[in-house]
Amino acid sequence: MTAALLRVRKQLAKGAMQIQQLGTPLTLLLLTLFFGVTFLITLSIGRKQENADHYMTAGNKVAFGISAASMTATWIWASSLYASATSGYIYGISGPIHYGLWGALMILFIYPFGRRIRSLAPNAHTLAEILHVRHGRSSQLLLAGSNVLGSLLSLTSNFIAGGALIAMLSPLSFSAGVLVIATGVLLYTLWSGIRASILTDFVQVCAMLGAAAIIVPTVFFTAGGPEIFTTGAVNLTPEQQNFFSSEAFLNQGAPYIAAVLAYAIGNQTIAQRLFAVREDKIKQTFITATVGYGATVIGVGMLGVLALYLGIEPLDGDVNNLIPQLAASYLGTAMLCVFFVMIIGAMASTADSDLSALSSIMMTDFYGRNIAKPGRADPKLMLLVGRCTMITATGIAVYIASNRLNILDLLVLVGAIWGALVFPVIASFYWSRVTNKAFSIAVVAALAVFFPVRFGLIELVGPIALFSDLLSVVGVGVIAGLMVFGFLGLKASLIAGSLVTLAVLPFGMGFLHLYPVLTASLLAYSISTLLCVGISLLGDQHFDFEVIAQQTGRFDRAAKQE
């Protein structure tokens, strides 16, 4: 490697190298073109015959190609690209693998549960709507409320990613960038809800995948190519160089497995696409999205590993700046524009999904099933509720984004919160004995333990530590069992869960509590599972699953019949 290149790297690591910017006019032009095109696309969706059901589920008939692109685009957040790079920067070469691989596999794990859910409720709008029929109001609102919180935090993290990108690549401030991004996404999503989101996702995912295939190799070779791994190895600790790093697995991989399984089951943005796609295309859609997500996120995450080898310090100490910092340092103006569009596309594709999900929840779970009288929901009023929800949510997310939270921590936190709901939700779709009491107590108790453990309010020492380790080991078994259950059924899942629990028990006792993020997630799984099963077994109530399809019909059709 040349001495000149080494000097350049040292300058960059110290922050002395000038970060290239696109300039305000070019940045605004790119944003105008991107959001202008997406808005024009949504104009093709007519408003003459507005339909509340189509606003939420696109008529349940989206074809394979569009639905697969939409699922891929929704799962590939701008935040997930940033978080994957952060994982690579913190944990080394295995970081992006732990982030991208487990996230991809969780998409795959959704589809068997998805087929069951669609067979029970072919015309449902939200998972919480199904729980309203299955259990009643309290269970419905627990899931709906957690989805409101989760989607708001997801929306916030995407605005943070967009604001960081604009602040890095232009003279515009972070706050201005957040505001521009939020306004652009709101304008085109407000028009037609999920239909606008799905239709624009196809264009956005093509831009993302194409740009990622060009950007990552370009940055790699411009920065020095394969020689980086030789000359930059001194910047890595032994754990960061170890592909099978236990630190990376326990701090990143294991908590993320728990988090993304919860995302897969509890996230309304994913459920909304499950209800939108043609029922016979669910399997193909989720398999395609699995491959697309894994390849893109792992590839972009390697930029974080590259920054680690180069000895780069994140600008202003903010790891959210890593990806735009590398791009601004090693790409020319034309390629930087391509990179800019890639990140904006990733951000917009998930932000519009969050807005659509939030509107669906408020339209269905709060107004349609709780405020309006049974069978008397007004579709036009529902549309107004949905659009007002989008505007309000955007304002709240912009306000929260001003705090510039760590995106990786934010995503793991949201997924862990949903972990308390995973088993009760899945069990409610398969086991007729699960009751509203069992569901509600299990979720509330799990959350009551999760939060103090996650934020260090409970000191894990002595008997408390041992008891938490025991429950955490059970949580590991629950996660393994749920993964097997969707594909192989109850008997195989019980065997897998039991074997994994026994295998982890000798290693987990006296050890797992040292990792509070992981422990909190595992406790949420184990406590919710044990309570849900135990309380359900105490009763002798059986539910008729055929009732679900009868009571989750379409709002517009009901209005016309009346």
Q: What gyration radius follows from the Cα positions, in whole Å?
A: 23 Å
Strand content: under 5%
Helix residue percentage = over 70%
Q: Counting H and I runs of at least 4 residues, what is the number of helices?
A: 25
Are there runs of 5+ residues with pLDDT below 50, and where? Answer: 1-17
Number of strands: 0
Describe this protein's structure.
There is one protein chain. With 562 residues, the protein is mostly helical. It contains 25 helices and no strands. It has helices spanning 3-13, 24-43, 52-57, 64-75, 78-91, 95-120, 127-134, 137-169, 174-192, 194-223, 228-231, 238-241, 246-266, 268-276, 282-310, 322-330, 333-371, 379-401, 407-430, 436-454, 462-488, 490-508, 516-538, 546-551, 555-561. Helix 4 (64-75) packs antiparallel against helix 14 and helix 8 crosses helix 18 (379-401). It is globular, with a radius of gyration of 23 Å. It starts with a helix and ends with a helix. Mean pLDDT is 82; it is low at 1-17. The chain crosses the membrane at residues 26-46, 58-77, 89-111, 141-166, 172-190, 202-223, 286-310, 330-351, 381-401, 407-431, 438-458, 464-487, 494-516, 522-539. It is found in: Membrane. Belongs to the sodium:solute symporter (SSF) (TC 2.A.21) family. InterPro entries: Na/Glc_symporter_sf, Na/solute_symporter, Sodium:Solute_Symporter. It comes from Pseudogemmobacter lacusdianii.
Question: What's this entry about, in short?
Answer:
It contains 25 helices and no strands.
What features would you highlight for this structure?
mainly alpha, 79% helix, 25 helices, Sodium:Solute_Symporter, Na/solute_symporter, disordered N terminus, single chain, Na/Glc_symporter_sf
